[in-house]
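Lab notebook, page 48
Experiment: co-folding of the full assembly
Goal: obtain a model of how the components sit together before planning crosslinking
Operator: M.T.
Materials (sequences as entered):
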Amino acid sequence: MAEFLSLKDAVKKYLKSGDMAAFEGFTHLIPHAAAHEVIRHGIDELTIVRMTPDLIYDQLIGMGLVKKMIFSYAGNPGVGLLRRVRDSIENGWPRSIEIEEHSHAALANAYEAGAAGLPCAVFRGYLGTELQRVNPNIRSVICPFTGEELAAVPSIRPDVAFIHALKADRKGNVLIEGIVGVQKEAVLAATYSIVTVEEVVDELDTHMNACILPHWTVSAICKVPGGAHPSYAQGYYGRDNKTYIDWDPIAADREKFQAWMEEHVLKQGPDVFAGRIKGLEVTS
Amino acid sequence: MTEQDFTPDEMMAIAASRALSNTDVCFVGIGPPSAACNIARLTHAPDITLIYESGTIGTAPDVLPLSIGDGELCDTALTTVSVTEMFRYWLQGGKITVGFLGAAQIDRFANINTTVVGDYDNPTVRLPGGGGAPEIASSSQEIYITMKQSKRGFVEKLDFFTSFGHGEGGDHRARMGITTKGPTLLITDLAIWKPDPVTKELTVVSLHPGTTKERVQQTVSWAVRFSDDLQETPAPTEEELSVLRALKARTAAAHAGNRVGTA
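Observation: model returned without errors.
Model output:
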């Protein structure tokens, strides 16, 4: 049952050291504010899962909070590689992390299997690739009807799923529009879910097939305007591409990275995000 | 090389765009494939269906997206589905006629590495990983690849098999149980390559204007095969060049124009 909480209280209540956490958002609606809150709490030994780890996973890993990352594409979209992720994998700084690497098809299927309450996902994939050599969680099953060998991966059942959505109504029903990614699947697959939203409204004012998470599927709702920045929120504000580009040289240098995190994350709170979208608002 | 009024990158994007048709349903990779697909849409293939893995179907962006999930893609799409649906119904379901991929490393049988340079457990460079490519490579009806040539990229032996092309050549794909055609075309900044019908080894079938066989060989780590019927790629037309340059200019303005970020 959705409870309206401050982001600080929601993170404190639901996420603990050693948990598996999913922060989902496929370019759109990436839960930056939530990830920064987790960093401020210093909750560590996390297993983090995400199809497309980008800046927030670079930051969580660079701050030494991550034990293991499950992923399918780790890059700064359109910019390049993730410097903190690389430093961890290539040099063990600030610590080594374990990685479990998949393809997008596998993780999308694994979230869906998690939402569906299944132990594993079955799909046609990994044909001729080498990922199964390095990831023992990529296995196969034989179709009992046709004999076709299909790929199988474990379903994803996070302890906590974090997503950012457009809005919630006062009961806590949540609306996601635009590129919806795998957020619905991630929330339904997780034990707990924390949803940051742009606004809380009387009526969602939507259409009959909209992507809605009923209030009883969500643990906590936190109003954090701008909470996806520098990602975007359809109809609210655009993607701050320059921040993605500017991130590269910051992340490339350990000291610059630490100074940036101190200044822009550790010393701040969720309220700062509302100011970060100034000038990016959708006006039409 | 003689002086030309277009760059090798422009020739690459335009040559790649020509390979697409109006009836294609194309799963678009980010970067060079995205440029090529949108030039096709803005020139000879206005009705092409462009699909990005973020779930946008039938998208017609005014500027090239920086990421695979920019709002521009969703705003201009016929419909946007979940990423799960995208991979299950539309890709795995066999609805994609052409998967258009880029690559960090490629070998002579068009296998692709986008995972690591060096050893997987102790990499020299940790690349982003496969993303959608492993299944795009096996589930699309055929694959086009576009990338710039360099010895670092065109390697004798891949450091990692991220996406299966023609494996060791010949009927290796079929022996793996893969029923789709796989890579049928490679467009670079210097040439157009196609797999040999029998051996499946990539063969240069067309040199871009001003390029020589020697130049192609200098940027490839294996001994390059050239077609007996080697062609010259037609130079970009004025229309193609103006469409490409306008698209690039709009894109640069849009991506730089967003206000100063916090990072």
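Interpretation: The two ends of chain A are 35 Å apart (CA to CA).
Next step: discuss with group before ordering constructs.
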